Amino acid sequence: MFKEIFLFEISYRLKRPATYIYFIVFFALAFLFILLAGGAFNGVDLALPGGGGKVLANSPFMINSLISGLCFIGTIIIAAIVGDAVYKDFEYGTHALFFTKPISKFDYLGGRFLGAAVIALLVFTGAAFGIMVGSFMPWLDASKIGAFHLMYYVQPYLIFVIPNLLFIGIIFFAAATLSRNMLSVYVGSILFLVLYGVSKSLLANINNDFIAGLLDPFGGMAMRSITKYWTVSEKNSLIAPFSSLLMLNRVLWLCIGAIIFGFTYFKFRFDQFSSELRSTKKRLKITEVKERIGKIILVPVSQNFSAKAQFLQLLQQIKLEFLSIIKSIYFIAIVFAGMVFLFVSGAQVGKIYDTNTFPVTGMVLEILAGSFYLFVLIIIIFYSGELVWKERELKISQIYDALPINDRSPFISKLFALILVQV
Question: pLDDT band for position 24 (50/70/90)?
């Protein structure tokens, strides 16, 4: 069944408008970048790190930098495509159909993952096509455009894009498959980018290029150590060599990805209600449940719809929504990542271009308002949607809507809870 599931995943993704939208976005960004770097607009010039000057806009060095950079930004796209491969079965309630069929775990997980990974790679090719088409535009500066070589466009995918796609895709695939929750994937993708930026700044201070190049999961540090002394002529004519450092980096992180996939394979169960990442709690037997139900004493109550009762209901709802956020493991992870980011940024307080200065209030506030603001924004974006959609996701929306509470209370309580979380 591996082939059938693999082809079904590809067919499903090719019917989704989002696949073509992602491709067009990558194509348009790459097309715009090559126009800017190729001098299509008077007075506007784009120079990527290591580029500019006599380095051609479609040189192998620039093409590699641009494709790798765009695909790095596309980490969120990997989360949306590959991370959703198995989760959509739980979202649409079709997982029970798969779980009752004679399908092996490898066929199910492998077919889903590989099919989604192929579609993600197809989306990422939009960057190569955008550069390729843009470099043939007649309004570019001819002195900034070199000859066309297909290998210039293929090589970045062989060394960087495909290995990175497999490694990052496995991480997001494992998170969604084991938690059965897409919020973990989207939050994880944001945190992955942030923590990668922090680690990259720390690795940049390491004098040993070998360790820095080996520990970078995207291979950028290894590539930089190889090309940092390249001349303009070499950047315009040479593709990235298959050096020992770069190959060790690729093999290392692909092996780590294989280990994560193996862990997911052995941890995953064809169980309709289980979540492999949740803590195992003691489950009550049916007899114990009946005994507890029999001991419940129903107290007669009188309904009260006064303004005071509605206000107390609103306060209780705010408390409930607030606690549901701050007790979430994903919220704790975001805040922890923000604290790590502030710790790294705080180490630079009092230094301007390696010149010691006093860490005055303005500098500290700039870090707090600028650096940590990103994490506040992440919390607002994710949990605003999470709060609004929570009852539908848990499939209790019809019960919730039938409760005798004011229609405005749920919206007001969710809004105030989100404000309190930011405070």
Answer: very high
Query: Would you state the structure tokens that stand for residue 281, as one six-digit string?
Result: 């709690």
The position carrying tokens 């649409």 is 92
* Beta carbons of 155 and 60 less than 8 angstroms apart: yes
> Would the pLDDT of 120 be above 90?
yes
Residue 68 to residue 161: CA distance in whole angstroms: 7
Predicted confidence (pLDDT) at residue 248 exceeds the cutoff of 50: yes
DSSP of 341-397: HHHHHHTTTTEETTEE----HHHHHHHHHHTTHHHHHHHHHHHHHHHHHHHHHTT-H
Q: CA-to-CA distance for 40 and 322, rounded, in angstroms?
A: 52
DSSP, collapsed to helix, strand or coil, labels residue 317 as: helix
- Residue identified by tokens 């037997």 is 285
- Mean pLDDT, rounded, of the chain: 81
**Nearest to residue 219, comparing CAs of 151, 154, 159?**
159
Lowest mean pLDDT among 15-29, 96-110, 188-202, 404-418: 188-202
**Predicted local distance difference test score (pLDDT) of residue 279:** 47
Amino acid of residue 396:
I
Show the tokens assigned to 333: 């992870």
With pLDDT > 90 as the criterion, what percentage of the chain qualifies?
16
The residue type at 25: V
Asked whether the CA dihedral 320, 321, 324, 325 is positive or negative, the reply is negative
3-state secondary structure of 145: coil
Instruction: Choose among 35, 38, 30: nearest CA to 65.
Output: 30
Write the CB contacts of 103 (distance below 8 Å, at least 6 apart in sequence).
1, 5
Does residue 46 come out as left (phi exceeding 0), alpha (psi in the -120 to 50 range) or beta?
beta
Render the burial of 166-188: b for 16+ CB within 10 Å, e for the rest: bbbbbbbbbbbbbbbbbbbbbbb
3-state secondary structure 232-266: HHHHHHCCCCCCHHHHHHHHHHHHHHHHHHHHHHH
Classify residue 328 by its DSSP letter. Answer: -
Determine the average pLDDT of the residues in 3-20. Answer: 91
CA 36 to chain CA mean position, Å: 28
Q: Is the pLDDT of residue 275 over 60?
A: no
| Contact (Cβ atoms closer than 8 angstroms) between residue 126 and residue 22 | yes
Mean per-residue pLDDT for 190-217?
70
Radius of gyration of the chain (CA): 26
Terminal alpha carbon distance of the chain: 51
